[in-house]
Design a protein that fits this description.
Shape: globular
Strand content: 15-25%
Radius of gyration: 16 Å
Structural class: alpha+beta
Bound molecules: iron/sulfur cluster
């Protein structure tokens, strides 16, 4: 018996990459190793270059560094801010692979609604 395919209801090619602007994008050990291999770097070098530590009362995480972005203010350092796409797609962390964890993306619903409402296919609402 075949499992019915889930119909994906978002299109990242029509989105300026909001999810890549999340301030905390976690990099687990396996993610770091994958990124280090991708760039042919030592793990320690990759860790310093690509990540930083985030700590608060409940969390202690290794996260991706950011760069400036003209749309969201700040975005993942691996994001191409002109082409609006990931430059390390094959080596991206697991959390990037899993997102948005289902057939729908809340931000895509939002942007689609606003574009229809404003009658402007390129409209980018501030999130
Ligand atoms: S916010 Fe949603 S639609 Fe936009 S790039 Fe991320 S997953 Fe794709
Ligand atoms: S690694 Fe790629 S998919 Fe993940 S946040 Fe950065 S640009 Fe986005």
């Amino acid at each position: 018996m075949s499992i019915p395919a889930v119909r994906i209801r978002y299109d990242c090619l029509k989105c300026p990459g909001y999810c890549c602007s999340y301030p905390r994008i976690e990099v687990k050990d396996a993610d770091l190793l994958r990124l280090a291999r991708h760039f042919g770097l030592d793990v320690e070098v990759a860790e310093r270059r690509f990540t930083r530590r985030y700590r608060d009362e409940d969390n202690d995480e290794r996260i991706l560094r950011h760069r400036k972005d003209h749309i969201y203010g700040s975005i993942c350092r691996f994001f191409d801010t002109e082409a609006r796409r990931c430059t390390v797609y094959v080596a991206r962390p697991a959390v990037c692979r899993q997102y948005p964890n289902g057939a729908k993306c809340g931000y895509y619903e939002f942007i689609r609604f606003e574009r229809r409402h404003q009658d402007d296919p390129d409209f980018i609402p501030s999130a």
